[in-house]
Here is the input.
Amino acid sequence: MKKAKRALAIHDISGFGKCSLTVALPIISACGIETAVMPTAVLSTHTGGFTGYTYRDLTDDMLPMADHWKSLDLKFDALYSGYLGSFEQIEIVKSIVKDFKTADNFFLCDPAMADNGKMYALFDLEFAQKMAELCAMADIIVPNFTEAAFLLGEEFKKGPYTKEYVEHILTSLSDLGPKKIVLTGVYFDEKAVGCACYDKEANIMDYCLQPVLEGIYHGTGDTFASALCGALLNDLELRKAAETATKYTCRCIRRTLKTTPDVRYGVAFEGELPWLIKELKYND
Ligand code: PXL
Here is the structure.
């Protein structure tokens, strides 16, 4: 049996509308990985399409939680950040990464802040610049095209994309600092969609594409990034981990299409966890 691993997931809890911690915790746990959590805020729902949501900010708890873990000498095999609500939270995550990042673990940053050409509610361009500072400290980042454009200060382009454009985005993002990039929402025609991976040190660029499915569901990015994190912690190399996360996410979307009437309700990821568990074979 392999050595037990532990991830730290730093995201908000959106009580309804599956995303952030309510997705990261079950998916990474299903990958056989202990998942410690640092909740950054508690909301009644996510901010994508709902109005009137509650928002309990937990910024003031973040550093004391980290300090307590330091006093316990806790170590993490992965640090995984997602949706962050303010400049201050980004600064705090930077300091947590400084304290808990070692030569033996990785920091995966999902710069969850935008999609379909638009920033999420509550964010602006300045926020994207601040998020770029956090991405600079990451080993791996997982942006979609909208987030990539905002991180680079470029105009968002709608697909279908060309290989030249995708490769320009991947290399420009790696110039910000992270050595590995997994760019989501890649498509060259209307038939297939998926991700592009770039490993700067190994100088490998690769694509994982699956047949296109209708519908844009909220929380798809979190489902993908969480499965990627879990797969990497199972020692899959970047290309294989991205392929597993892409296939898993597509299966989840297919299931969502059949079961969920409202795109705001999130991705039906639960019923596909047995597939992910089998795929990772972590009990071998
Ligand atoms: O990762 C998506 C996400 C997470 N958390 C909150 C959100 C969103 C996207 O809108 O609003 C609170």
